[in-house]
Amino acid sequence: MSDQNSSRRDFMKTSAAAAAAASAQTTSAAQAPAGVEADSIRAAEWPASRPLNRKVLWNELSRSEFPPLLENDPVVILPIGSLEQHGPHCPVDMDISIPYHIAVATAEDIDDFPVVVGPPVWTGFTHYNMGGYGTITVRLETFIDVVSDVCRSIKANGFDRIILMNGHGGNVAPVTAIANKLAHENIITLSFPYWSLVQQEMRDWSTADMRGPGHAGEWETAFQMYLRPHLVLMDRREAGKARWPFSPAVRGYAHVPERRRESANGSMGDPFAATPEKGERIFKLAVERLTAMVREFHATPVLEYEEFGSDAKVLPTLF
After folding, report:
1. pLDDT at position 313, please?
2. Which of 51, 80, 119, 207 has the most crowded CB, counting CB atoms within 10 A?
3. Is the distance from CB of 138 to CB of 125 less than 8 angstroms?
4. Distance between CA 206 and CA 213 in Å, rounded?
5. Is the Cα dihedral 43, 57, 152, 141 positive or negative?
6. From 3.40.980.10, 3.30.160.70, 3.90.1150.10, 3.40.50.10310, which CATH number describes the 30-303 domain?
7. What are the φ/ψ torsions at residue 215 (nearest 5 degrees)?
8. Which residues lie below 8 Å from residue 134, measured CB to CB, with a gap of 6+?
9. Would you tell me how many other CB atoms lie within 10 Å of the CB of residue 122?
10. Contact 58/144 with Cβ under 8 angstroms?
11. How many whole angstroms separate alpha carbon 81 and alpha carbon 17?
């Protein structure tokens, strides 16, 4: 068990030693606010420091460990995100780290049936963030193909209940299209961005942005201050320098997909309003609601496409 725990989790995690070295190099750059030091140590090790009694990551399972999971209506959560610039103070893996941590915490909290966290899809459709260093994007067609093929593989392994939890705004429409496309192949998924679990609370509990999740603003920064404060460069925080084209009326329903045009520093929102307490509160609520969803999905009989019949017989070549 000790070996299992020591090899655990956050595939993007920086070690505590590396974090300390980075902090020394950047002086106050990575320092947490007063009163957060103890939490920083905890969060830097999270979730490896949590008590574990089983494996929850797909990539940690051996071939022989999959068949027993299939005997009890398992649920697979596939985190989807991107690597992209998040202003001058947040790590570029923001959009995959949040759904990944929510998925892992949910899987670990459920012990009466199998919940497996699929291999995180970090390749996102984010060309509009290429104006800032650190962004890696793939073509829309590539993104759709990769996520679709991962889901097909999960289904081929015998897992009928798949949740697609996305952490990147640019992936929202493509993931919806993927879910619709896969349904015709009888691969039924539940798909949503993680912030839809807590959208109203992000508005209600905000003290600055009054929305969620923003981009390296109040809520995304708060998530990282709770989960991985050693990666937040506190003295490099800047409020978003918005320069939106068009009027507020037009922006209410249309926008131009180019981050550097929208914001001079790559941030959208106010990171100074973020606190680790806000991050913890919204994170735990997201885990609570995802847990309820997973339990309901587990209890629901496997859904079959066209199980109620279809008057039209559409040629497969049309899809």
Report:
1. 74
2. 80
3. yes
4. 10
5. positive
6. 3.40.50.10310
7. -145, 100
8. 83, 84, 85, 92
9. 21
10. no
11. 27
What residue type is assigned to position 148 of the chain? S
In 184-313, alpha helices (H)? 199-204, 218-227, 248-251, 259-262, 276-299
Q: What is the pLDDT of residue 248?
A: 87
Q: Distance of alpha carbon 267 from its chain centroid, rounded?
A: 18
Decide if 202 contacts 211 (C-beta within 8 A).
Answer: yes
Nearest to residue 201, comparing CAs of 272, 282, 274, 268?
Answer: 282
> What are the C-alpha distances in Å from 2 to residues 6, 48, 50, 120, 209?
6, 11, 12, 24, 42
Q: Of 218, 121, 208, whose CA–CA distance to 163 is shortest?
A: 121
* Residue that has been written with the tokens 């725990």 in this structure: 5
DSSP annotation of 165: E
Give residue-wise pLDDT tens across range 261-298: 888 999 999 999 999 999 999 999 999 999 999 999 99
Q: Report the alpha-carbon distance of residue 208 to residue 224 in Å, rounded.
A: 17
pLDDT in tens, 70-106: 999 999 999 999 999 999 999 999 999 999 999 999 9
Integer Cα distance of 224 and 245 in angstroms: 30
- DSSP state at residue 138: -
Domain residue ranges in the chain: 30-303
- Cβ 117 vs Cβ 27: under 8 Å: no
Furthest CA-CA distance within the chain: 68
Residue 245, pLDDT score? 85
Q: What is the distance between the terminal CA atoms of the chain, rounded to a whole angstrom?
A: 47
Q: Which residues does the chain have with pLDDT short of 70?
A: 1-53, 314-319
